[in-house]
Amino acid sequence: MTTTPALAARRALTTLASAALLLWAVATIVFFLQHLVPGDPAQTILGGASANPPEETLEAVRAQYGFDQPLLVQYGNFLAGLVRGDLGESYTMKQPVTAIVGEQILPTLQLTAASLLIAWALAIGLTLLTAGRRGRLARLGASLEVVLAALPHFWLGVVLLVVVAVVLQWLPVVDDGPAGLILPALTLGIPLGGFLAQVTRDEFETALQKPFVLSALSRGASPAAVRWRQVLRHAALPGIALSGWGLGSLISGAVVVEVIFSRQGIGQILVAAVTAQDLPLVIGVTFVVAAVYVLANILSDLATVLVDPRLRHTIGHA
Amino acid sequence: MRRRTVMTGLAAAGAGSVLAACGSPAPAAELPPGTREGGELIFATDREPTCLDPHNSGDMPQTYIARQYLDSLVSMRPDGSVVPWLAESWEISEDGLVYDFTLKQGVRFHDGEVLDADAVVANFEQIMDPDTQSSTALLYLSPYFVSAESLSEHVVRVTLKRPYSPLLTVLAQAFFGIESPAAMARGLTENCALPVGTGPFKVVEWRRNQEVILERNDDYTSAPADAQHQGPAYVRRLTWRFLKDNTARFGALRSGAVHAIFNLPPESVPTATADERITTQDFVHSCVPYALDLNTTHPALSDRRVRRALVHAADAPGMVHSAYAGVFPYEGNAISTGTPFYDETFHQPYPYDEQRANDLLDQAGWTGRDEDGYRTRDGQRLSLRLPYASDPGETPPADLTILQNFQAMQRRVGVEIRLLPVDAATLTAIRRDPTAFDIRAGYWNSPTAGVMYIKFSQETFEIDNGQNVSYAFDEELDQTLLDAAATTDPARQQELYSQAQQLLTDQAWHIPLYPIQTRLAIRSDLVEGIWIEPSEGEPVLHDAYLLRDGL
Amino acid sequence: MTTLAPPAPVTAPEAAPTPRPARRRRDLAGRIGLLAASAVVAVVLLAALVPDLLAPQDPLEISLSESFAPPSAEHLFGTDQSGRDVFSRVIHGARQSLVIGIGATALGLLGALVLGLLGGLGGRLADGAVTRVIEVLYAFPGILLALILIAVYGNSALTQMVAVGLATMPGYARMVRSQVLAVRDSAYVEAARALGHSSPRILLRTLLPNAFRPLTVLITLGVGQAIVWAAALGFLGMGVQPPTAEWGAMLNAGRTYIQQAWWMDFFPGITIVLFTLSLTVLGRHLQRATDAGALR
Q1: Distance (Å) from the C-alpha of residue B216 to the closest C-alpha of chain C?
Q2: ∠ CA C283-C286-C288 to the nearest 5 degrees?
Q3: Whole-number mean pLDDT of chain A?
Q4: Among residues A190, B72, B134, C110, which is most buried (max CB within 10 A)?
C-alpha cells in the first residue's frame, strides 16, 4: 500500500525540520565549546613559529574579530553568518573556512565513496561465496569477516603503505589521481567490509530459511539464481540502512587515513586545525561533516524504503 | 677558518658538476644537448612559511622560498666575501659607519615598478616599521642601523651607529630581499600572500597547506655575479610544494612526482644513497647550533655548576647520533663549523660524565632525594619545564627523540625534566615569558660569527622579546663581540671570536647539539643546476634545468 | 573500529540489527578460540594491573647503544630509537589504553543509563528530549567529537575518556531506552504492581536487571572499540605525551622508523588487533549464551 502525497510531503517536511534542528544544535554546541577555551585566539591568529606580536597588534586583532564583544552578541553574529553560509575565517590559514572546506571535502568524498564501494564488494563477495554453505567454507568466511573488522585503520594503513608502496613499489606513495586512492580506500574499506559482511551474512542465512526460497526452488529456479535475486536483495536491506552510519564511520576513519597517506581532505585539515587550535576551522569542518552525515542518513533511509516497500509506512515514526 | 661539509651520494658525477659551478661566475651558459628550456620544476619541502614576505617574522622556510622571487643587494660566497647583485658596487667609509651602494640600472619589479634608491630605502623602513612585525631582519638591524637615504636615483646611503663588519653578508640573505614599495604599501596581509620582487620567479598563487606556484620572470636581468648563468631562469614554472610527512616527501622523490626535496629525512638516507638516481647535497649553516637553552632566571639554573652538570649528564654526541641515525654531526661549540672563525678547540667542551654531573649537583646543594628519586634542596624538587611545539612539522620525530633521551639521562642523575607539548600560539606566548619555561630548544642562523651577539648579548636581553633565551649576559663577552664587529683584520677577528667561544663555553648557558643544515635530495636524472648559497643555506633554483621532458 | 553494533539511522525504525554468531554446534575449534581469546584478555588485564610483574625492563630507560635492535631473546619485541625495550613498553601501554577504554565505556554506560531511564520512564516530553539529545550525539561521527573536545580542553586522559565516552553513549542509550520501554509494559512489571510492590523496588529488582542484560554483551565489544579509538587519538599525537608508553603513540613513532625497525610498529599493532579480536570473540560467546539483543 502506498501513502498519499500529502502524508509523504508532511513526512518529508518533518524529516527536514528534524535535520535542521539537529544541525542548529550541533552548531551551538561547537560554538560554545570554542568560547570555553582558555587560550587567546588573537595569539593564534598572529602566531607562527617565530612570531612576536606586540600588544597593540593583538588589541587590533581582538577588535577586528570582535573578541571583546559579549558572548551572546558573538553567538548572534555566528548564527547570522551560518545562515548566510559564512563560517568565519581560519586563524592559521587566513582564508574563509567555507573556501577551505569546499576545496578539501571533495577528496574526502572520493575516498569515502571508493571505500564504501570496496566494503560493499567485499561484503557481497564474502556472503555470496561462503554464507549458507556447509562446513569449513562458511566458518572460514565468518572468521575472516571478524578478523577484517577488527583491523584498526591506523595500523592497516601503515602496513599497506610500507609493504605495497615503499618496499614493493607497486603503487606510488603520494598521488592525487586514482592510483593514490587505492591504498587509502583499501585501508578504510576492508574493516568496514568485514563488518558489513557479518550483517549481510546474518540476514542472508536467515532469509535462506524463509518459505519463499523453498517455493522459488520448487518452481524450478536454480539455487544460484535464487541466491542472487531473492535472498541477496532481502539481505542487503540492513546493509543499505547501515550505509548512512557506515559513511560516518568512514569519515571518522578518513581522519587517520588522510594523515597516513598525506592526502588532501577534511580529515587531515581537522587534525591540523586541532593541533594549531584553529577553532573556526575546527567548528567549520565539524559542522559540514555533521551536515553531510545527517544528509547521508536521510538518503540511506530513502534508499531503504525504495528497496523494501513494506517499510514505507513505518519510516518517520521513530 | 670556516669549513664547508659536503656529502654526496653514489652518483657523485652529477653533484660534481653542480659544485664546480659554485665557485666562479659563469657567463650565460649553453644548455647541454638533450636538455630543454622550459617545463615545470617541482620542489617539495617540509615546513610551510607563515608569510611569503621574509621581512615579516623571519623563520627559515621564508628565506628558502623568498630566494626564488627576491634579489638582495649582494650575494655571499663560500669564503665569506660578497659579490655584486642588485648593488653593482659599494663604498665603505673609513670609520665603517657609512655604506654607499650603487644600484644596477634598468631593473624592474614584477609589478613594473622601477628599482631605484627610493625603493631600497622603502625596504629598510618597512623592516624597521613595527607593523611589519619583523623579527629576524629587525634583530640584525636594530643594534646598528640609523638610517637609509637616497643620495641620487641609483645610490643608497646606509648609516650605522656602530661599525658592523658583517653587514654585507647579512644583507645577502633573502631575509633582506628587496621588494616593490608599491607592493609593500598594500599592507602586511596582502604582501604576505603575494609579495613582489625582482627575482627570477614571480609568485602567482599560494594554495595554503599545499603549494606555492611561481612562474618565470621572462625579463629577469639581475642575477648575482656568482650565478651559474645570467638572464632568465630555464624552467618556465616552479611549484614549491609542502609535504610535511617524511615518508610522503621522500616517496614523492623516489617516484619522480617531485624533482628535488628539502630536508632529506635521516631515516631515508640509506635508501637515498643506494639509489643511483638520487644525489644529495649537504650544507652546514653558519649558525648557533640547535641547542637546549637554559633559562638562568630559574633558581637552580642560575648556578653555573648546575648548568655544567646538566651538560655532563647528557651524552649529547650519543643522543644526536642515535636520533639522527648517524646522519647529523654533533656540535658542542656555541657556533657551527659552517660559521666563519669557528674554533674547533671547543667542539666538545664537556665530556659525558655522570659522576662529574652528580658531584657538581651535590656541590650546588641539591643533595636531598624525594620518593621518586629526584634531587631536592630545601624541600624543592629539581624540576625543569621544557615546552616544545606539538606540531610534528615543527618538532620532527628525531628532535622529539632527542628531548626524550635528554629527559631519560637527566633522570639518572636525579634531575626531573618535564616535557610539555604545546601548540604554536601557546609557544609564542611562552617565548616571551621567562617564568613559563626553564629549558627551550632553539637555534639561530646567521652568516656571521656575530650571531653570538645576536643571541647572548645584553642588548638583546633588553629588547626583551625572548631571543636571549637564557636571560643572561656577560659584559666581557659583549665587549669582545663588539670589538670583533668593529675590526676588519681577520687575525684579530679570529682572536676575538675564539675568546667569545671560550667565554660562552665556560658559561654553559646552553647545551648545543647539532648544526642546522640544508640537506637536499635531488633526482639527478631529472634535473640539474640546483645549488645552495652560503648565507642561509638557501636552495637556488634560478640555474636549474630539466633533463627530460613530459614529467 | 567497527565491531560495535552501529546506531540506527535518524529516522529509521528502532531495530538496529546486531551481527549474530551463526547458530551451530559448539565444536573444538570454537572452544579453542574461546580459550585463546580469554587468555589474551587475561594477559592484557594483568599487564594493565601489574605491569612491573610482566615487563622485564623499565619502559622509560634508554640505552643509546642498543637502538633499533631487532627482536631477540633479551628484547622480545626489539628496541626502539632510544634503545627502549618495546615489549616492556607494550606491557605498560596496556594500562593507558585500558584505563581510557574502560573509563570511557563506564562513562558512556552511566550517561546511557540516565538518558535511557529518563526517556523510558519519564513520559512523552522527556522521551522526546532524550531522543533529540541522542540524535545530536549521533551527528558527530566517531572520532570527531573526541578531536573537538581535545582541541578545546587539551589532551589529558580525562578529556579522552569523556570524549570517547560521549561517542559511545548514544548507542548504549538507545538500547537502554528501548529495553526500558519494553520491560515497562511487560507482564513482570504488571504482576509486580498487582502484588503491590513499591515503585523503587520494581525499579531495582525488575527494570534495571532486564534493561541491562543486553548491554553486558555490548560492553565487551564496546571496550574494544573505545580502546581502538583511544589508540587512534594517540596515533594522531593527541594522547598522552611521550615518553609515556601508549599503544597509539608507539604506532605513530613506529611509523617514522618503519623501514629500519618494522617491529616498532608491528608489535603494538598486533597487540591491539589480537586484543580487539579476543574481545569480539568473547562478546559473541556471551551473546550466544544470554541470547540477548534479539529484536526481531
Answers
A1: 36
A2: 110
A3: 78
A4: B72
> Can you tell me the ipTM of this complex?
0.77
Find, among C38, C37, C68, C44, the residue nearest to C271 by Cα. C44
Q: Comparing C-alpha atoms, which of A29, A315, A251, A246 is closest to residue C10?
A: A315
- What share of chain A in percent tops pLDDT 70? 82
d(CA A206, CA A222): 19
- Which pLDDT score is estimated for B419? 93
Q: In the predicted model, what is the mean pLDDT of residues B387-409?
A: 89
Return the C-alpha cell found at B483: 670589538
pLDDT at C27 over 60: yes
The more confident residue out of C294 and A256 is A256
The greatest distance separating any two alpha carbons of chain C, rounded to the nearest whole angstrom, comes to 77
From its phi and psi, is residue B10 left (phi > 0), alpha (psi between -120 and 50) or beta?
alpha
Task: Mutation target for C interface from B244, B390, B391, B401: give the one with most C CBs within 10 A.
Answer: B401
Tens digit of each residue's pLDDT (9 = 90 or more) over C171-196: 788 777 877 777 777 777 777 777 77
Q: For residue C225, what are the CA distances in angstroms to A169, B492, C220, C231?
A: 33, 69, 9, 10
Order the strands of the B201-207 sheet from edge to edge: B201-207, B211-216, B237-242, B40-45, B260-262, B517-523, B278-284
Cβ neighbourhood burial of C213 (10 Å; 0-12, 13-18, 19+): middle
The DSSP element (H or E) to which B240 belongs, if any, is strand B237-242
Determine which of C62, C66, C67, C85 to mutate to test the interface with B (most B C-beta atoms within 10 Å): C62
Query: How far is CA C244 from each of CA A148, B407, C268, rounded to the nearest angstrom?
Result: 30, 12, 14
The larger pLDDT score, comparing residue B427 to residue A66, is at B427
Residue C67: which of B322, B390, B420 has the nearest Cβ? B322
From A21-30, A144-153, B525-534, the region with the lowest mean pLDDT: A21-30
pLDDT tens per residue across span B337-384: 989 899 999 999 899 999 999 999 999 999 999 998 899 998 889 999
**C-alpha cell read off for B31:** 644548455
Q: Does residue B526 surpass a pLDDT of 60?
A: yes
Which residues of C fall within a CB distance of 8 Å from A253?
Answer: 1, 142
Residue with cell 615518508: B247
CA distance C214 to B291: 58
Alpha carbons B181 and B126: distance in angstroms, whole number: 9
Mean pLDDT of chain C: 78
Distance from CA of B286 to the nearest CA of A (A): 19
Q: Mean of the per-residue pLDDT values for chain B?
A: 87
pLDDT of residue C88: 93
Domain boundaries, chain C: 76-295
Express each pLDDT in C71-120 by its tens digit.
Answer: 998 899 999 888 899 999 999 999 988 998 899 999 988 888 888 888 77
Q: Whole-angstrom Cα distance, residue C82 to residue C59?
A: 11
Does any CB of chain B come closer than 8 Å to the CB of residue A167?
Answer: no
- CA–CA separation, A213 and A96 (whole Å): 57
User: What CATH number should be reported for the domain whose range is C76-295?
Assistant: 1.10.3720.10
Full-prediction pTM beyond 0.80? Answer: yes
Q: What is the DSSP string of chain A?
A: -PPPHHHHHHHHHHHHHHHHHHHHHHHHHHHHHHTT--S-HHHHHH--TT----HHHHHHHHHHHTTTS-HHHHHHHHHHHHHHT---B-TTT-SBHHHHHHHHHHHHHHHHHHHHHHHHHHHHHHHHHHTT--THHHHHHHHHHHHHHT--HHHHHHHHIIIIIIIS-SS-SS-SSGGGGHHHHHHHHHHHHHHHHHHHHHHHHHHHTSHHHHHHHHTT--HHHHIIIIIHHHHHHHHHHHHHHHHHHHHHHHHHHHHHTT--SHHHHHHHHHHHT-HHHHHHHHHHHHHHHHHHHHHHHHHHHHH-GGGGTTTT--
